[in-house]
Amino acid sequence: QVQLVESGGGLVQAGGSLTLSCAASGRTSSTSDMRWFRQAPGKEREFVAGFVRTVSKPIYAEGMKGRFTMSRDNAKNTVFLQMTSLKPEDTAVYYCTCNSDWGQGIQVTVTS
């Protein structure tokens, strides 16, 4: 099992930026499948970005690439999600996953 702790969320104005971090501990490795999801109020949880095991570069959901950048620091077992040009519709709880384990989620609120 993997323990995941997200950080870096908060309140930001539209057009602003935030960088989320997710620190993993436990049964994790540099090849672990690491992903970000989000869930907005009243909506289903959706995929945002991820390092899928067989792909060295992150993949992004439609509409995320160009504004969101995912990276990883294998030495620290940490992944990041840099979010720029944020929009009110990016408001959601953001979750980090490692294989089948989920973090507790972190709130991102973008005001207009």
Characterization of this structure:
The structure is a single chain. By secondary structure, the chain is mainly beta. 0% of the residues lie in helices and 54% in strands. It has strands spanning 2-7, 10-13, 18-26, 34-39, 46-51, 59-60, 68-73, 78-83, 92-98, 101-102, 106-111. The strands form two sheets. Strands 2, 4, 5, 6, 9, 10 and 11 form a seven-stranded mixed beta sheet that branches. A four-stranded antiparallel beta sheet has the order 1-3-8-7, with no helix packed on it. The protein is globular, with a radius of gyration of 13 Å.
State the main characteristics.
112 residues, mainly beta, seven-stranded mixed beta sheet, globular
